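Morning run. Coffee first, then this:
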Amino acid sequence: MTEVRGFNIEKIGDRINPGFKSTRQLLDAEDLAGVQALAVRQVEAGASALDLTIGPREATDPAFLEKVVRAVQGVVQVPLCFDSPSLQVQEVCLKAYDRARAGGKPAIINSITEQRWELMRLYNTLGPFQVIVMASERMEDGAPKSNKTADEIAATAKRATLRLNSEYGIAPSDVYIDVSVSAVVADTGGLHRATLQAVRMLHEDPQLEGLHIMGGMTNIGQHLPPKAVDGSDLKLSLECAFLTLAVPLGFNAILCTPWRTYQPLPDDNYVLAAYKNILEQTGNNALRAVRKLYRA
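And here it is:
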């Protein structure tokens, strides 16, 4: 585990993803050397695993997907995290994955949900692997439902973790629960507050000892301007504000750009104080609290 400037958390690098324009250009050009350089840069910045997706092309060009997996493993020795809801795509990735090149460590499947449990069919033939479980939705009466309360998030995560253990023998220490850190600008129902409460509940549950509790850092600052009222980088400061509150509760892994400078914020930090205020609000009051981040 890499200590991130005071945060004792694991970093999973998220940059091999065509959602980033520069990465999309590399993949469109089939510039495998460029992808390799990106992989190396992330590991050098402290990533202990690398998330990997080539976007929609992975469903139509499995040969290129295999080339990308093998190219990345040719230059780094960390596990790869395969980011696709498709069983067929995950099968291609797992067959291409060379565990020996990752220091004997298994791949990570991103991501399982109660609705997409069929991905676990690969475990008996291409396992073992570690698992990222999305705790943002559950199955109820045969239909998917969004989780909006701490109890719903924690219950879904626990149910999935115990099921993985009972059906496949997977220990909680091989499970990552993604609690889904949402965009703060759209949070009028207290979802961030519920997420933090769920982190604490999962961390304190004795049946889940060793569980990884994680989330992606990309969404929290979506649709916000670049600078906060105090002149700081608003999106980075928001990410740090979340981590400042979440890590002491048991949040211990992030899907992120590894070279971003995550660090705990002091109590008198403007963005941290504003974020704490947002957590206490709902409805229009929450929207007004968000505006205080960037409007004096």
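The first helix runs from residue 21 to 28. Good start to the day.
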